[in-house]
Structure formats: structure tokens, C-alpha cells
Amino acid sequence: MRTTFIAALLAALVGVAVSTGVAGAVDSGGFPDVPPWHWASDAVTKDQGARLVVGYPAAPAELAQNAITQVYDGFVHAGAKGAQEWVERFSYNRPASWPAPLERSQFAQVTFSGIRVAVHDDTATAAFTAAVTTRQGQTVATPMRVELRHNGGDWQVDYAGLASGSSLFR
After folding, report:
1. Which of residues 66 and 12 earns the better pLDDT score?
2. φ, ψ for residue 14, nearest 5 deg
3. Domain spanning 60-169 has what CATH number?
4. Which strands form 91-92's sheet, in the order they lie side by side?
5. Does this model's pTM top 0.85?
6. Which side of the chain, N or C, has fewer Cβ within a 10 Å radius?
7. Beta bridge partners of 146
8. Is the predicted pLDDT of residue 19 greater than 80, yes or no?
């Protein structure tokens, strides 16, 4: 039943995209909010390659915030296909011991509050509180302040800033 609904929904979305001319648009930015372990990742990638779907433009602050989310999500899904490459896509200044911190990740869930992002050209600063629940059931809420850079494609989080703010990244 769910598969039929999803197939019908995708068919409707493709129909709208084709009828409105969106299918012919080119999106070079990809879908930086659909990680490789997401259930729809293969379909989204395939449909994007066929120009059936495109992403929407987003403001730099939103994309910088997304980079933070994707790094944390990579740690939640550390054992999933593509998690290491995903975290590397959205981070820089990783330690010499990389990917050991990811491989020993104990993240089970994360929630953010109070996110504030200030963008200055190709750099940004973000302040937020991250509440990480570990696989042991402990929740650690940590106020964070990190620097980001725009690498010409994606926004990336300074990993050293994450590690200095939370021992969960070390």
C-alpha cells in the first residue's frame, strides 16, 4: 500500500515537473539534504540525472545550516553506506586520525535549538545547541559555535570546531 502511494506521488510530481517545464531545467547543486542512506536517495539521484526533478535555490545561511545538520546526521548513521564520504563532503579540517572519530560514533539521535548563522561572503559562523542522544541512552546538550566555509559547491563545517566544542567528535 505504501509503495503504491509513493509510486503514485512520484508519478504525479514528475507529471507536474514535465508539464511546467521544470524537467528541462539544470540543477548543478544536487540535493545536499538527501544523504546516501536515505530511503529515496537512489530515486532522487536517478530522477535528477534524468532532469525529472530539480532542487530549489536556498539562501547561503540555510545551506550552511544544512551542512551542520548533514555532519551530525552522518555521525548518527556512521555505519551506513556513504556516511564517511557524506561527512567529508560537508566538513573540512578533520583530524589526522580521521575517520576514527566517525567509526566509533555513539550518536543515536540529534536535535538542534537556537541555531543562528551569520554569513560573510564565503564564510559563516553558526551558534546553536546540539542535544545528542547516545546509543547508551545518555543525552548530552552542548552549546556549539563553529566556523563554516563555502568551497564553491557546498558549505563545509570546520570539524576542529566541532571537536573542540564536544568530546563526542574526538
Report:
1. 66
2. -65, -40
3. 3.10.450.50
4. 91-92, 155-158, 139-150, 123-134, 107-120
5. no
6. N
7. 126
8. no
